[in-house]
Amino acid sequence: MLDERVPPPDLCPAEPLSQVVFIHDYLQLVFQSQCLSVYNLAQVEHMGVTLTQGSSGFCDALVSLIGSAVLRAHHNERYKLILEFPNGNRFFVPAAAEYVRGPEAFQFAGTDEYLVVEQNG
């Protein structure tokens, strides 16, 4: 059984996903005034299918979450971050070495200058 730990309480975005930004080597999930920048290769589970960043259908599956609120944010030994959306959809920041692309896994900029930077390793 995986050890599920809850990240800091302010890491769960308060607003629904409002935009997805694909930048050259990372992506951002924007929740109105809060922003999650993901530097590891990400995964999204949409309609029971898990897609990895760079694979066919990943972008469409991720963009389809726009307008959805995060129901729960947590992590475990396999994932640096798991965001659960309605209808069983989930967004993952994997921790395994094959998904790592730098020293940071992700950065979450919340409200009131709240900032979380999750390191790899």
UniProtKB/TrEMBL annotation:
It comes from the Bacteria. This is Uncharacterized protein.
